[in-house]
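User: Can you model how iron/sulfur cluster sits in this protein?
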Amino acid sequence: MNWEPWTGCYKASDGCANCYFYGPHAKRYGQSTIQKTDKFDWPIKTNAKGEYNIKGNKILATCFATDFFLPEADEWRKEVWSIIKERTDIDFLILTKRIDRFLVSLPSDWGTGYDNVNMGCTVENQQAADDRLPLFLSYPMKRRFIACAPLLEAIDLTPYLHGVDHVTVGGETGREARECDYDWVLNIREQCVKANATFWFKNTGSLFKRDSVVEKINPFKQAGMAKELGINISDGKKS
Ligand code: SF4
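Assistant: Here's the modeled complex, given as structure tokens:
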């Protein structure tokens, strides 16, 4: 399930170049208009019996269609942190390209982190990894993952994998998509094996290079094809 307490975004780095905010979504809503959605307090909304509308034991992908740390949302984020704090029975999965803003509006009782927050830092190339991951590792958090998406080149994550539970990798989707080379994916997987981190190849992207051949992949087949390659590493298979 996704929870988008606000909508709108704008480019943070190279990985954003073909974000859907620059496609039809932008024409409809305005690419950089940041506004609260009607789902802002959705996790704490209750029905007539006083029960939460969203039952517990769920994972809520939070701000996957915007950025949790946009400056425009600094005030709203204080409220969102308190919503997250209230729903200890839900895991909030937060993904950002703006990890440098992590400390802004952080609740005073954050301490070493809330147990129900799993924070993801997105890095699309080596530069983004070297800029963002040292910061990411320096902040107090209970659970961390790295998302290499869209993967734009080979990335050495080795210096940063200590203290990270999981790495997700995915190619870029869309008409202007840049190539994703399977060798880059396998290389990151190897780094995860050595660091004892779990690994998920989420999707191939629209232009997937394997064995020196570049193939155009239909958006609806990209996740299935990545899965078929059978390279994911779950907890049980960590070596
Ligand atoms: S940060 Fe994410 S949502 Fe925002 S423009 Fe970049 S890719 Fe799109």
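A couple of observations from the model: The longest strand covers residues 90-96. The chain has a mean pLDDT of 94.
User: Helpful, thanks.
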